[in-house]
Amino acid sequence: MDERDDIITLVDDEGQEEDFEILMTLEVEGQEYAILLPVDADEEEEAYIFKIENQENDEYTLVAVEDDEEYDNVVAAYEAIMEEMGEDQE
After folding, report:
1. Residue 2 lies in a domain
2. For site-directed labelling of 16, which of 25, 41, 62, 88 has its Cα 20 to 30 A away?
3. Domain of residue 62, residue span
4. Interval 1-53: pLDDT, tens
5. Complete DSSP assignment for 39-56
């Protein structure tokens, strides 16, 4: 299998591994976020939003966004970027 820089493996609380494609990273109000989509997702599955928390040695941790207002702000920023990208392609 080819190594891809845009694929990461996350492990859930039960130890199950799942591969995700990194659709985008973006900054909202000084905080960095990652938009991830399961590699085997169907067309109707929604992406996941994770907060990126930088650790030592250039490592990072992804943390689920649980605050509704924070989540809505990231979704709005993501949608604005996607809309702008769509306009640029026309």
Report:
1. no
2. 25
3. 7-89
4. 456 778 999 988 899 999 999 999 999 999 999 999 999 888 888 889 999 99
5. TT--TTPPPEEEEEEE-S
